[in-house]
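Exercise 7.
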Amino acid sequence: MWNEITTLFKNYIGDGLAAGLFLAASAYLLFVEKDRVKRIILLYTSAVTVTLFFFPLFAKVVFRYLDEETYYRILWLVPMTAVIAYAGIRLIAGISGRALRAGAAFAICAIIILTGDYVYDNPYFSPASNRFHVPQTVALVCDAIIVEGREVRAVFPDEMLPYVRQYTANVCMPYGREMAVERWENDNPLYDAMREGEPDCGKIASLAAEQGCHYIILHETNHRKEDFKETGYHYVETAAGYCIYLKDDAYLGLEY
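Solution. The predicted structure, written as tokens, is:
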């Protein structure tokens, strides 16, 4: 158990620079911060959270219900960003002279930058294309199928799964991003059919109807619109390179 805990902690802190900065900020506040409420929120709760994380009996109980991927998120409860930011402000506020304060602010900002990583070096991150921080293709497709005043149910291709529910709660799905996590061993025949290189549109339509989907979304390059003839779904429009098919007998009025 102890080895699992320490491994999770090492993976969480990475090279340890940000964690070291947090420890330095915490030590500074421990000596200079006199406000009891702020000490409780920023320091004492952090200490309790980290202590529980490393307590094997606590970990054993949690591991009975959650997996490792979830357990490490306990460390998210530690307000690292708030502690570092507040300590920096307290340090700057305690310096006399505008020039010295500006120099201290510049130095603190530089230290924070140097202890971090450029987020877009990670292949899983890209600059946001809209205020919802989801791919614009997802936003355009969802806008095309949303019905004001009610929920609709749609099946999406793999690449859209993590983003649909982030963009809108009015679009439901028969499965989500959990299908992409192999260790969870989820199974859904519709998901498997949607992932085929040359999708069987008849099979997809049949499974989508069984799972109550009003819409089917497929990229326009991996199938033909004619393949949906006599499947119970008909072509509506193409949005951002994705074909949208609606169930023939779907009623999407305001009444359920």
